Amino acid sequence: MTEGTRWKFAVFIVVLVALHFILRVGLGLGVLAPDLLVVALLLASRRLRPGTAAGLGFLLGLLEGSANPFVFGVASLALAILGYLGSRSREWLAGDDPLNMVAFFFAGTLLYELLLYVMLAVGGVGGSVMALLIPALLASVYAAAVGLGASTLYRSLA
Q: Where are the alpha helices (DSSP H) in 22-128?
């Protein structure tokens, strides 16, 4: 990856993160907006080393926790784990095939929701399993569609 492409990609990731907070907090859409933090982390983790991707996930989790104090430490840990695993997925998920990317975003978002649910349940805050399954599946499909659109948009712009 050339230096110019690296900067374009970094700016693209920052725009996704800013858009996440504009939609969720600024416009007050909450869960109606796609989880662009997970999409941004999964896109970035495919180009980063595992430790760097985990660090980025931790930083994004701190940002998410500052906007939503209910998940402060939990989001940091879940996004750090997701960043690490997303970076390691390069070994078995090669290429930018649209079907692979949709599966990658779907599985990543579902894993993030599952990690949040389990860690909050350990803390005594979690709800029923059905409260996880239906919203998590819908959020995963939504994030997969938005993630595919975002990766296609970046490829057309770069």
A: 36-45, 50-67, 72-88, 98-122
3-state secondary structure of 1: coil
Contact 55, 76 (CB under 8 A): no
The predicted-structure confidence for 114-144, as pLDDT tens digits, reads as follows 999 888 888 777 677 777 888 899 999 999 9
Neighbouring residues of 51: CB distance < 8 A, sequence distance ≥ 6 = 84
Give per-residue pLDDT as tens, 141-155.
999 999 999 999 998
What's the topology of domain 3-157?
Answer: Arp2/3 complex 21 kDa subunit ARPC3 (1.10.1760)
H or E segment and range at residue 17: helix 3-21
Main-chain phi, psi angles of 13, to 5 degrees: -65, -45
Q: Exposure pattern of 78-104 as b/e (b: 16+ CB <10 Å)? A: bbbbbbbbbbebeeebeeeeeeebbeb
